[in-house]
Amino acid sequence: IMNHPLSLFKYCPKCGAKEFNINNDESKKCANCGFIYYFNAAAAVVAVIENSKNEVLVSRRAHDPAKGTLDLPGGFASLHETIAETVIREILEETRLEVDAVDFLFSIPNLYEYSGFVVHTMDMFFRCQIDDFSNMKAQDDVLELFFIPKQELNPMDFGLKSIKEGVEKLQSLAI
Question: What is the spatial distance between Cα 28 and Cα 26, in angstroms, rounded to a whole number?
Fold first, then answer.
């Protein structure tokens, strides 16, 4: 079992005291200055993009975690951007595609290990309409991009837990 991410925080980020103790499952409190640090989920987006042939755009991960496995385009929200802006930016960064419309589908909490640190995420799935695929090119942390007929998607081919669950949910909802 993975250690709770708060176990890596040894000192109060406000005053630097060593008396930075577990307050509850989501926070630590400084016995010196009273500061409470809450460890919240990071916002992440996942794009469900279909073409006119009822095929879903999938990517292959170029890096760990789950390097080489299938994924859906997406990534983490940056500071000072809306979640819709995150979807549009991530799709552009990974695929060079421009999103014409974004619709929220559902969300799934996830654990994402990066550089030996467990990040609790809230993965938000969006249906993204794209009218022009002519500029599509894998880039950023994507090794390749290709389409798979929706009925042939196999959740076990996807390396990240939340993406597997998301693909299963997409199939069960017939989205």
Answer: 7
